[in-house]
Amino acid sequence: MKKVLVTGHAGYIGSVLCKMLKEYDGYYVIGIDTNKPDHNFFNESYQLDYARFFDNKVEGVFHLGANSLLGPSATDPMIYYMNNVGGTAALLRNLEDRKMIFASSAAVYADRYAIPVHEDRMELAPPNNYGMSKLMCEQIIDRYVELKKNTITSFRYFNVAGSWLGTGIQKDTPHIISQLIKAHKNKSTFVINGNNFFTYDGTCVRDYVHVFDICKAMIYAYENINEPGHRKYNLGTSKGCSNLEMTMMFQAIVGKDFNYTFGPRRVGDPAHLVANGSKFVEETGFKYTHSKHIKMMILDALDAHGVDHGF
């Protein structure tokens, strides 16, 4: 049985990844996280440091563990650099010649109205500390691979959404679908953060990709990319959806009594972030299967939260 280490296995994406690895792909999963997981899709789970888990039986690593919220990265940036950059450096120190998949982010890109964002043609100038911490991790990995000749793939996720077979719940996060569900359950008015962005309807535009496709892409890369080097890929659909459009789709599903209003922008929010996701598809043959319809991502998330929607 293939043994892999998953950092951040208690999180939203990590829980879905562990379920796929363990139950459908036959991996032996060792999970590390600062939080206690609420799932059992692993063989071993720890809240300790990396070094003790790197024995000869661990074949590779999926490095998802990180602080990832934009707002706190503006008010307490050093936590992001200590945990994200420092944690990645500590992991690399023990990686040796093992293969690794790194969870980067579309937040590494500059806030430019570029349609769509291509890995090799878009300026890397993060507008927030979270994005900067991820870019620094990528740069450290570049240097490490030059020295060690590992096979490491970094994925720049765009906006991850949905759930899979009830697994993958975004708890108490500022991500829009999570906040829409929270407002619906509390019967409160949903607040769209900003309506004066330079976009077609004044609200942020994002590229939503299903968490199923995110996790399958990571496993696909782990199993199919074997040449040494550090490769960087976008994971996105190349289609944008605004916060207002997302809110109106949600309203159409749950009912007209769902109300929304507009509030101030969040600090560090780019106006427009849509991927050119063709590079990974063209170079590896990967196919997205669950990201075509945003409505299905909303319905999957509602199901995971146990919310009746009538569909």
Q: What is the secondary structure topology, with strand pairs?
A:
Elements: E1 3-7, H1 12-24, E2 28-32, E3 44-46, E4 60-63, H2 70-75, H3 77-95, E5 99-105, H4 129-148, E6 151-157, E7 159-161, H5 176-186, E8 190-193, E9 205-206, E10 208-210, H6 211-224, E11 229-235, E12 241-242, H7 243-254, E13 260-263, E14 272-273, H8 278-284, H9 294-304
Parallel strand pairs: 1-2, 1-4, 2-3, 4-5, 5-6, 6-11, 7-10, 8-13, 9-14
Antiparallel strand pairs: 9-12
Describe this structure in words.
- The longest helix has 20 residues, at 129-148.
- It is globular, with a radius of gyration of 19 Å.
- It folds into two domains: 3-161 and 208-235, NAD(P)-binding Rossmann-like Domain (Rossmann fold), CATH 3.40.50.720; 176-205 and 239-304, UDP-galactose 4-epimerase, domain 1.
- The chain has helices at residues 12-24, 70-75, 77-95, 129-148, 176-186, 211-224, 243-254, 278-284, 294-304, and strands at 3-7, 28-32, 44-46, 60-63, 99-105, 151-157, 159-161, 190-193, 205-206, 208-210, 229-235, 241-242, 260-263, 272-273.
- Helix 3 packs parallel to helix 4, helix 5 packs parallel to helix 7 and helix 7 (243-254) crosses helix 9 (294-304).
- The strands form four sheets. Strands 3-2-1-4-5-6-11 form a seven-stranded parallel sheet, with helices on both faces.
- 36% of the residues lie in helices and 19% in strands.
- Strand 5, helix 4 (129-148) and strand 6 form a beta-alpha-beta unit.
- It contains nine helices and 14 strands.
- The protein is an alpha/beta fold and 311 residues long.
